[in-house]
Amino acid sequence: MSLKYTVEHEWVDADHALATVGITHHAQDALGDVVFVELPEVGKSFAQGEVTGVVESVKAAADVYMPVSGEIVEVNEALRDEPALANTDPLGAGWFFKVRLSNSAELDALMDEAAYKALTQ
Amino acid sequence: MTDTPTRTASPETSLLRTPLYDLHLELGARMVPFAGYSMPVQYPAGLMAEHLHTRAAAGLFDVSHMGQLSISGGDAAAALETLMPVDVIGLAPGRQRYGMLLNDNAGILDDLMFTRRATDFLVIVNGACKVADTAHIQKHIGTRCQVTPLPDAALLALQGPLAVTALERLVPGVGALVFMSGQSFVWQGHELFLTRSGYTGEDGFEISIPSDAALAFARALLQQPEVKPIGLGARNSLRLEAGLCLYGNDIDSGTTPAQANLLWAVQKVRRTGGARAGGFIGAPTLLAQIDSGCARVRVGLRALERVPVREHTALHLPGGAAVGEVTSGLLGPSADAPIAMAYVDAAHSAPGTRLDALVRGKPVPMQVCPMPFVPHSYHRG
């Protein structure tokens, strides 16, 4: 898989018109122990850059933005009971939601891994 | 995702450093500006682990940013009583007490701890307030007593149920101290002043130590198997669970001890009808509030859903009018629930009262509850 990244520290894993979204390892490390995740409603559509929810640690709260425009088709229910999945496996079991893309061209403007690494170093 | 922890634009170079700065970096701390100092907010273990370790064993905190003052002279106790609504004269040697400096409106300029030693009072004030506090004290009582800042002393806190076990190995005899008392000890030729107190709700000690000995002493403490370093992040979650106020959040110059629900700290001798009633800055306002009540008060709140409720969140009657605002709030790692302190209209301050916190426009049900959120475990002897 080839991940794309946003300046807001989300990752996007797109497969044709469907993309999985989560927060990056850097993001979870900056936040610390995640204790609460507010996920968007399935079926709701967001434009790129809109706030879809929030992720909170003991010390901080951070908005989660829509990295690519589209409709939410699935959310990671496991995060509600076990928010720490965002820390322990941010790129795997700690995924946030899946999006049906409405404009897959937006993917081209996101960062690749090398560019994201440069941003966070 | 936008990261919004407390970071300021102030350049690193302008920040002060405590004697343990290099040790914090060596331990892998994440440093943040706090009260003008570069301070560790957390170590690699992380806030949650640090918090739980302190409740289970012993945590070492660098609180050297705090201000330490020596106030001496035969008139010092009476002079201090003109600045604070508390009993200073009646405090026995070797005992420690909580106090507050008030302004003319009984607003709290700072909260502090003071210990009567053989020849002076050792006063510990908040780091962000220490310059203003010193000026205030000098201005009002500087001609009646000697007010001496102690910038060459570091301050460490060792907190938790095993703090006494670890510290006793280095400084034999500390276990004989009881909660809110203090005494001098010697460690490797350095004089320490220890009090059995802290800011976590746990048993533990605060240790005033010459700056040039602080690093070696901290390393010696960290070599004890019970002890791990704890950052300011866990210090905040520990004190909130203990129901203790954070100056600047839960109390400030616009809140009085009566509004802040801190009247346990105002002894009867200083209240209306007491032998030394009044006679402190802000007395008319504070005594009137004690006698007649006040319109808003500080309360504890627990959320009935697992949604953190943070400072500045508005509180409403369920489906109704605004009645208050949260001043501190987080998910308490030991309480295992979202907890908060808030100011609410006195009419809606009784334990059990249901209120809604408006979080991102949605009501989160909360209930007024007694504090502390986690029981205190002080060593009262």
Could you explain how this protein is built, in words?
- The complex is a heterodimer of chains A (about 120) and B (about 375).
- Chain A has about 120 residues and is of the alpha+beta class.
- Chain A is built from four helices and nine strands, in the order βββαβββββααβα.
- Chain A is globular, with a radius of gyration of 13 Å.
- The mean pLDDT of chain A is about 95.
- By secondary structure, chain B is of the alpha+beta class.
- Chain B folds into two domains: about 10-295, Probable tRNA modification gtpase trme, domain 1 (Gyrase A, domain 2, 2-Layer Sandwich), CATH 3.30.1360.120; about 295-375, Beta Barrel (Elongation Factor Tu (Ef-tu), domain 3).
- Chain B has helices spanning about 20-25, 45-55, 75-80, 130-140, 165-170, 210-220, 230-240, 285-290; strands at about 30-35, 35-40, 60, 65-70, 95-100, 110-115, 120-125, 145-150, 155-160, 180-185, 190-195, 205-210, 225-230, 295-305, 315, 320-330, 335-345, 355-360, 360-370.
- In chain B, the strands form four sheets. Chain B has a six-stranded mixed sheet with strand order 10-11-12-9-3-13. Chain B has a six-stranded antiparallel barrel with strand order 14-17-16-15-18-19.
- In chain B, helix 2 (about 45-55) packs across helix 7 (about 230-240).
- The interface between A and B is medium-sized, with 25 and 24 residues.
